[in-house]
Specification:
368 residues, alpha/beta, Rossmann fold, 3 domains
Length: 368
């Protein structure tokens, strides 16, 4: 009779071998994808084919079902491979068509999380990137204790500092008259608007953008970069070119439009999650106990709130407090919470139902 431990060891060995084969097949798939990407680039064809992606996902679901597996599992497996392929193709495209070609770029604040993202993004396009940050050097990159000297001569200067520091840096850059393009990437534009205008009026090529994603993002498909019109169209066109070989969506708008939009897109969503985990904290309930019995909705909300709680609180406060339009969504959130509380406290099913139905109509019928 076979020893159960021996049988278990044998089965685990088979699983290890299969896992290895899966990784080997994933590597083979990536090599084929890379070849497809080279062919597409040589014929100037779009890298991404949405109809083909849909076909691959549907085939995976059908094959999983044929083998008695959950179709969602099949789609998730190929979905991970598709995302990895797109990330690789996007990087290859940036390397092939990026406009860096050894030109000099300085990232002020390059030791911060978004600063590091830009150092990698620019290096992929062939820029010779250096960093200036009081936090210290970034491994593998030239570092400057003082940004002023290198900023004068760099062909591209990215300012990835906190908003208050960014405004001061932009004001100083106006006096330095740098030769290259200056780009600030802040989440709120009102605190830096005057400094941007000063820099523009001093004859410096300056642009303002807002990457609507965090520093952990690698694939830009489904992400957006807002290009803010500050009255310097040539500079904005130049910074647009940095992202044209990516799959990011590019949207252009005025400074005020940007801050109004961000008040709702960032300010409201951050506030909802901060209120969520603040209420849980005040409840005194054991979060492990709540998570252990989480509903689908609670689990999803808890995941988002946990990620928000780990973010930089000073940055999140800047987003809330420095936006001149920021109080409006906070007041709307407070009023909405009060309306829900009143409907429940008054046992008013009609009012509660009306809230949910109005929300469903709003969310299901977006304005074009």
């Amino acid at each position: 009779m076979t020893d159960p431990q021996q049988a278990l060891a044998r089965l685990r060995g088979e699983l290890d071998a299969l896992d290895g084969e899966l990784v080997d097949m994933a590597a083979r798939r990536q090599r084929i994808v890379a070849e497809i990407g080279r062919l597409k680039r040589s014929h100037r064809q779009p890298t991404r084919d949405y109809s083909r992606e849909r076909e691959v996902r549907e085939l995976a679901r059908a094959r999983a079902l044929h083998h008695g597996l959950d179709p969602e599992l099949g789609e998730r497996l190929v979905g991970a491979m598709i995302e990895a392929s797109l990330t690789s193709q996007e990087r290859d495209r940036l390397e092939a068509f990026g406009g860096g070609a050894g030109r000099s770029a300085l990232v002020i604040g390059g030791a911060g999380r978004m600063g590091r993202w830009f150092t990698e993004f620019l290096a992929t396009q062939g820029w010779a990137v250096s960093v200036a940050d009081p936090a210290g050097p970034v491994a593998g990159l030239p570092w400057h204790a003082d940004w002023r000297g290198p900023a004068r001569d760099a062909e591209l200067v990215i300012v990835a500092a906190p908003l208050a520091a960014t405004a001061a840096i932009l004001e100083e850059l106006a006096d330095l008259s740098p030769a290259g393009l200056v780009v600030e990437i802040g989440s709120i534009k009102a605190p830096v608007a005057a400094a941007l205008a000063t820099l523009r009026d001093a004859g410096v090529a300056v642009a303002s953008i807002h990457p609507m994603f965090g520093p952990d993002v690698r694939l830009l498909a489904g992400r957006h970069v807002i290009l803010v019109d500050i009255g310097a169209p040539a500079a904005l066109a130049t910074v647009r070119a940095l992202f044209e070989q990516t799959s990011a969506g590019l949207a252009e708008m005025s400074l005020e439009q940007h801050d109004r939009l961000v008040a709702w897109v960032l300010g409201l969503s951050h506030a909802v999650n901060i209120a969520f985990f603040t209420a849980l904290t005040a409840s005194g309930r054991d979060i492990a106990e709540l998570a252990a019995f989480a509903s689908t909705t609670f689990g999803a909300q808890l995941g988002v709130a946990t990620r928000v709680a780990r973010e930089n609180p000073e940055l999140y406060f800047e987003i809330q407090s420095t936006n001149p339009h920021g109080i409006e969504p906070l007041e709307a959130l407070a009023a909405a919470a009060a309306a829900v509380e009143e409907a429940v406290a008054q046992d008013d099913v009609e009012a509660f139902t009306a809230l949910m139905r109005a929300g469903a109509r709003y969310l299901e019928n977006p304005q074009s």
